[in-house]
Design a protein that fits this description.
The complex is a heterodimer of chains A (about 325) and B (about 90). With about 325 residues, chain A is of the alpha/beta class. Chain A has 13 helices and 10 strands. The longest helix of chain A is centred in the middle third of the chain and has 17 residues, at about 120-135. The chains are: A alpha/beta (about 325), B mainly beta (about 90). Chain B: This is Biotin synthase auxiliary protein.
Chain lengths: ~325, ~90
């Protein structure tokens, strides 16, 4: 057994204290033959500190495309030659999407907009949309609308939005290679305001943007410092027309190593499968991740790309004897 | 019946090199790849066809206009201003 896994067994599994950056890096550098042991330990940590339940979420894009920012992975930036056109979802369709999500047993529905930050039109659409969903659907509403002002944070709390997603995307040292139109620190400031508001903080990122293994460890350590309620873990799905459109997808074993490492860095967080797992991990790898630290999934489609049918994921959870977290448990 | 009011292809749609079926039942050969917008005459677009299992169409296969695409948790819709809506 590698020394780092022995140390993690005591520090993380027994004491509930996440690995530091050096420890995370050691897990990310484990040779393939020790990956099963790392995943097994991460799974034990997840079961000990989070339990067997899996939080299921659906997401939808309220405002697609035409974003003024230049996040190099994103097909919704208006600065690239991506074929994604700008489109708005109307309120009836938004409510229908929430119903589709609730029908899967999901407890979370996240409304996302491709913007730098919300303007008055988007905040009104949110206000109307969240009210319509709360009237018609029994589900928790989360939001992801970019960078916020304090007034907007307060408005979202007033609407009843219980969790806010704002990904740091990658580590601080690599962020300028991925986004030039705003800074990592600006994102951190929104996260600070969200936390102080009482909303749950959801913050993760994307692996495979060209960061080094050391930077991947740096990112996990920075997320651990933030201590978010939820960490969505995406794997780059290279989008045509974006600056990262020709990058290779993350190798499956590297993705699994990252899942184990992120869990060992954050023993109590909700660690969610988000975009790209279908490409990077496939069906078998998805299963391995759920047995290696993951305890939440986005089911169904993503914002501009498609996912596995929700029924496939729910069937897998049943096979793994992992109950879907009930809505009542999230209230 | 207007061609703009009903899907012109079933779920999964006419692939990059498939046929497009209009609402009135008339079939038309797809001239453009609905993933990359390239001419289907230029090749098989095998990589596009594979990618389309996890992507909605972006280009109208009939006229190569970029479509307005909305993805929702359990499906998608793609609208060409000239050739109507497809759903999947």
């Amino acid at each position: 057994m590698p020394e780092i896994l022995d140390q993690a067994r005591t520090r993380v599994l027994e004491n509930g204290v996440g690995l530091d950056e050096a420890g995370i890096l050691a897990v990310l550098n484990l040779p393939d033959e020790h990956l099963p042991a790392a995943l097994q330990l991460a799974h034990e940590v997840r079961m000990r500190w989070c339990g067997p339940e899996v939080e299921v979420e659906g997401i939808v894009s309220l405002k697609t495309g035409g974003c003024p920012e230049d996040c190099h992975f994103c097909s919704q930036s208006g600065l690239f030659t991506s074929p994604v056109r700008s489109v708005w979802l109307d309120i009836p369709a938004l409510v229908e999407a929430a119903k589709q999500t609730a029908a899967t047993g999901a407890s979370e529905f996240c409304i996302v907009a491709a913007v730098r930050g919300p303007d008055a039109r988007l905040m009104k659409q949110m206000r109307d949309g969240v009210a319509a969903i709360r009237e018609a659907v029994d589900i928790q509403v989360a939001a992801s609308l970019g960078m916020l002002t304090q007034e907007q944070v307060d408005e979202l709390v007033e609407m009843g939005v219980h969790r806010y997603n704002h990904n740091l995307e990658t580590c601080r040292s690599y962020f300028p290679n991925v986004v030039t139109t705003h800074s990592w620190e600006e994102r951190w400031e929104t996260l600070r305001m969200v936390r102080e508001s009482g909303m749950e903080v959801c913050c993760g990122g994307i692996l495979g943007l060209g960061e080094t293994v050391e930077q991947r460890a740096e990112f996990a350590a920075q997320l651990a410092e933030l201590d978010p309620h939820e960490v969505p873990l995406n794997f780059l799905n290279p989008r045509p027309g974006t600056p990262l459109g020709d990058r290779p997808v993350v190798e499956g074993k590297d993705a699994l190593r990252a899942i184990a490492a992120f869990r060992l860095a954050m023993p109590r967080t909700i660690l969610r499968y988000a975009g790209g797992r279908e490409l990077t991990l496939g069906d078998l790898g998805t299963r391995d991740g759920l047995l290696g630290g993951i305890n939440a999934v986005i089911v169904g489609n993503y914002l501009t790309t498609l996912g596995r049918p929700a029924t496939d994921d729910l069937k897998l959870l049943t096979e793994l004897k992992m109950p879907v977290k009930a809505l009542s448990a999230t209230l | 019946m207007s061609e703009l009011t009903r899907p012109v292809a079933p779920a999964g749609g006419a692939g990059p090199t498939g046929r497009v079926v209009a609402a009135d039942g008339a079939a038309a050969v797809a001239r453009w790849c609905d993933r990359c917008g390239g001419s289907v005459a230029d090749g098989a677009h095998a990589a596009c066809a594979a990618a389309r299992s996890l992507e909605p169409p972006r280009w109208c296969a009939t006229c190569r206009r970029r479509m307005k695409v909305q993805v929702v948790p359990a499906g998608w819709s793609a609208v060409c201003v000239e050739h109507g809506e497809r759903r999947g």
